[in-house]
Design goal:
three-stranded antiparallel β-sheet, 7 strands, elongated, four-stranded mixed β-sheet, 110 residues
């Protein structure tokens, strides 16, 4: 349907956040947000397929072998987006994860 492709729409949706590859012996010092919220703009037919092909956001801490913070920016790069879809807003716009040595008493290890 040509008119479906030409009809532009904007939609906001939230995806659950999954933190992966936390190095052995380390933990997150605080819990990250549960979801990342995106606003997308583009042809309505492509928006629908984008929503179906993105079910969560995965952030990998592989290679972060020392304590301290890792900042993730450009969170739109973690989406599968067809040509014609534009990310107009992301919340949070950047994400900071802090690694600390794991102790027996605390920390967050999703």
């Amino acid at each position: 349907c040509l008119s479906c492709y030409n009809r532009k729409t904007q939609v906001e949706f939230s995806l659950p956040l999954k933190v992966a590859d936390i190095p052995t012996g380390y933990t997150l010092s605080s819990a990250p947000p549960a979801v990342i919220t995106y606003s997308l703009s583009g042809p309505s037919i492509l928006i629908g397929s984008t929503l179906r092909s993105n079910t969560y956001v995965k952030l990998s801490l592989a290679g972060a072998a020392t304590p301290g913070r890792t900042i993730f920016m450009n969170l739109e790069s973690h989406l599968k987006l067809p040509e014609g879809i534009v990310v107009t807003r992301i919340s949070p716009s950047a994400l900071e994860l802090n690694l600390e040595p794991q102790t027996s008493s605390g920390g967050i290890h999703p």
